Amino acid sequence: MDWYEANRTCAESRANLAIPTSQSEQDYIWELFMNEFDQTPGTSLWIDCNDIEEEGKWQHHGYGNWANGEPNNGGDSDCVKMWDTRNGQWDDTQCSRKDIYDCKLMEQDCPPGNVSDRKRNDNYIFFR
Ligand SMILES: [Ca+2]
Ligand SMILES: [Ca+2]
Are 18 and 124 in contact (CB under 8 A)? Predict the structure, then answer.
């Protein structure tokens, strides 16, 4: 799915696209993905980070894990994936690409964007 569809589908499942907010969460999501979901070389995973609204103004949650040389806005790249080629580090790419994505289910009482690190083991779901 492209980034927009992935984002919408997560929301319909009362979830958000996953976004790591710490190194431990980054490692957890990536290891879960690689170990339990997809080992295809070059595979990638959409995350909830973009600069669609304003070029260069990245929407994420304080933590970032860009690969060396990224973000480079190559070909007008406004959406972000974790990329196997970069060992799970982040690359900005075109939002229209079809990639795998990961929803993180939300607790009912937990507002979006305020998921604390202690919840990192909970409820990740991967979709193709
Ligand atoms: Ca961009
Ligand atoms: Ca890029």
Answer: yes
